[in-house]
Amino acid sequence: MGIVVVGSVALDSVKTPFGERANALGGSAVYFSYSARFFTDVKLVGVVGRDFPRAHLDLLRRRKIDLSGLRVADGDTFRWSGYYENDLNEAKTLDTRLNVFERFSPDLPESHRSADAVFLANIDPDLQLRVLRQVVRPKIVAADTMNLWIATKPDRLKALCKEIDILILNDGEARQFSGKASLIQAGRTIRSWGPRYVVVKKGEHGALLFSTRGVYAAPAFPLEEVFDPTGAGDTFAGGFMGYLNRRGNRLDEASLHQALFYGTVMASFTVEKFSLDRLKTVTSAQIRARLAQLHRVSRPRSLSSL
Fold this sequence. Notes:
Layout: E1 3-6, E2 10-16, E3 19-26, H1 28-36, E4 42-49, H2 54-62, E5 66-73, E6 79-83, E7 92-97, E8 117-120, H3 125-132, E9 140-144, H4 147-152, H5 154-161, E10 166-170, H6 171-178, H7 183-191, E11 197-201, E12 207-211, E13 214-218, H8 232-246, H9 253-270, H10 284-298
Helix pairs in contact: 1-8, 3-5, 6-7, 8-9, 9-10
């Protein structure tokens, strides 16, 4: 059991209406790994520069995330800076410095190539396809993407769709990729291009799962305050995939529906503080409590109680 994740490891500088943080630990592979590690073993593949703080490496090692696929290259670590205004669903980028990540060409260690679950975070689809050429018969392959690759490499992204089981993307990306205004049409269109399942994240409005059996809607966890949404989508994916892997990589409808709930719960913790600050303090009991609460709010009351 276990998951190999390939993606970015970054230093983020973020400002929200509630505060700001400079050079915080971030990146898609980091958020995914920390979240998925609550449920299963995780092997992280990525690259950092010589400037990457040892304290961040120590944190990931204490979390027992396998870093044997994390390369330290000459140069600086990938950096992103941005801010959020009152609409916390939209990040505004101030600066992106790819640095060593610009030359990232993932080569999986031999010990990673027989993984039974692979998550391809939102890197160049050519790199995602490169990773798939290195793994041997994984039971589940899921991928994320972003607006940049949809705009610049839609054909390569469609090629990737033919080789994966699950595509996870947000509502804006689903509309952009499919060319459909309706999310229902968007999800069905993307699914027709190859993936067995499509998950569309809708932020504070929950998530949709598209499968052969139709569309399943899961609610968002009801939070009174959101502090910083950076990394929430990757944390969602980590909870989603981590749960499926713990369940033996089963892709039946019941497991997928429950995975949506676990992903939603994990993302709800991330947004409560900067970086991984909230995830560092999460306990299994807190996860179970939020999962139970989310199930309660998702059940319709009987007509007699209205």
